[in-house]
Amino acid sequence: MTVPSRRAELQIEVVRKSIHLLIGFVPMVATLIGVPPTLLLLGAGIILYTSAEYLRYTGTRVPLISRITELASRDRDKNHFVLGPVTLGLGAMLALMLYPEPAASIAIYALAFGDGMASLFGKAFGRIKLPLTGGKSLEGSLGCFLAVFIPTYLLVEPQVSLAIVIAAFAAFIEALPTRDFDNIVMPTVTGAFALLVL
Fold it and tell me: Do residues 144 and 99 make contact, with C-beta atoms less than 8 angstroms apart?
């Protein structure tokens, strides 16, 4: 891979994962206004995005949303309906519906921070490819581990061993080759594991 193409790929990933990081506000919103209104907001966001993306896909640009979608699109997303924001919202909704606290927050933070940092670390520093992962890297998995460990530790302190186990599990799940469904698999499986060990 040439340096310019790697840089362009990293820039796209920064835009994509900035959107990912926004989902990290969901636990705070749920605490402030309650879970049902938060689920309604997420559902409305999914419907709004789906409508805008359908229009973009069929040739009608929607100001701001279409531009952000284009900036965040990977090569494999070109000329396709970009599903990532839909699965991102669904993943957060499932975490809120399926798990009590703190498992729901851990699941959402794994989605927002773990998946996001794995991708950024992997694109920026990834050299050691992990077998059977579809090209994911050890450096990406370490980024995921750190990004899940920190908020998990803050939620379960002083139980550092539990935070380590949950973060390691989340890094393992993130490394699986789930492609476009990682936004659903990551929070639901990590949340179930967190609920089990907590």
Answer: no
Helices (H), 34-175: 35-57, 65-72, 84-98, 103-109, 115-125, 138-156, 160-175
- Cβ proximity of 96 and 104 under 8 Å: yes
Task: Say if residues 128 and 137 touch (Cβ distance below 8 Å).
Answer: yes
Total-model pTM: 0.89
Domain layout of the chain by residue ranges: 3-197
* pLDDT, tens digit, 9 for 90 and up, residues 146-160: 999 999 999 998 999
DSSP H or E stretch at residue 6:
helix 3-22
Residue closest to 17 by CA, chosen among 74, 56, 95:
74
Asked whether the predicted pLDDT for residue 3 surpasses 80, the reply is no
Q: How many CB atoms lie within 10 A of CB 80?
A: 12
Distances (CA, A) of 85 to 9, 98, 138, 149, 186: 19, 20, 26, 24, 14
- Of 100, 145, 149, 99, which Cα lies nearest the Cα of 121? 145
